[in-house]
Amino acid sequence: MKRVLLSTVLLLAACGTGEAASGGEVPVVIGYQSKTINTVTAGTLLRDKGFFEQRLTELGRKTGKTYKVTWQDYDTGAPITAQMIAGKIDIGSMGDFPLLINGSRTQKQGDDGTRMVAVTGYNARGALNMVVVPPSSPARALADLAGQKVSASVGSAGHGTLVRALGDTKVTVENQQPSVGASALQSGNVQALAQFVAWPGLLVHQKQAKLLYDGAALNLPTLHGTVVRNPFAQQQPEVLREFLRAQLDATKFLHTRPLEAAEIVAKATGLPVEVVYLYNGPNGIATFDLSLKPVLRKALKEDVPFLKSIGNIDELDVDKFIDDKPLKDVVEPTEDLTNPASLGGDPKVASEVWFDGEQPQAVASPTALLKLVNSSGKKPRVGYVPDAETGTRWFAEHAFWVRSGADLLPFTTEAAAAKRGQVLTFQQALSLAGK
């Protein structure tokens, strides 16, 4: 359900967004997706911490203007795009496919269209999108879904991953909002759900689903980013600049205080903090960096022919759609793909365990995590381990384990684990690990 959250009550019809009303008041409307936690630095976390409003207050002391911010919350990027086309949202955040659809649909407006100005978060392999099935499902691979119904938000990044990963396998795609699809999965009206962060992790954590397909298997970057109406950027360049600075503030806060950031997002969204921390914590599935890196630009360009082939867009000049000049006024972009939020040690194996009443604790490897759980005699609140092939951070309890010499290797999917040996449950892995 869409929730409209207002910092102040604005009469936008009188003056249009971005134009100063009487008394020098400038309205700014932000569209975001609270539960799409790969956008929290331009949405939920940013809003909660008030970084943007704080910076606008400082700006107002220089300009003599008052800036009134409205936050509008949506489940997906499509309604944000519709509102931007109508001139009712100035700045929005959404996933890669919705961003490209946004650019395509507004390019006919020429200079009155939109521009992508920053990244919120990304995963270089595509693990932000996944396909889950009910825990009792006999499916072990996407091919097992042939002829069945799969819920997805058509035009979303999750839908794109599904279509690409299916190949020649034919399924019936039910176009549903994430929450509707989750209910359909539980009721048996669909046999699988293909969605973006954080829905797959949420359903698996709640033991309402198991992971069938990890988007990292595609090895194609997936990202979310910030988009602005170009007329607003031209009329209020200083406001856009302060938004990007505030987004950087939120990003730095997430990196330096990851657990607190996860707790803030969990409280605001109703998501379990363990799920938020899976994605946004150290070595999380999402890497937060505003930079419009070459590898991400390349991925967006490669997405365009695919979106055209499935009828989602007509055409798009990605180089024109991306405008990093405002960002360069705020921060020096980087091409480095290293996650700034690190557990330390070897990121390919570094793991983390969280016991009740304690802070999350980094351990050297998945095997070390198992040994620590055994020696502590405590049941962990949650454990996080990286997939032995893709590196995708996942719940230790819901991973599929394989013994390899003295080590126990975790995998996000049963199919991936089965290729490496006999598949073990978490409890079986614990019993083999010793202390």
UniProtKB/TrEMBL annotation:
It comes from the Bacteria. Gene3D superfamilies: Periplasmic binding protein-like II. Residues 1-20 form the signal peptide. Keywords: Signal. PROSITE patterns: PROKAR_LIPOPROTEIN. InterPro entries: SsuA/THI5. Residues 106-261 form the SsuA/THI5-like domain. This is Nitrate ABC transporter, periplasmic protein. It comes from Lentzea flava.
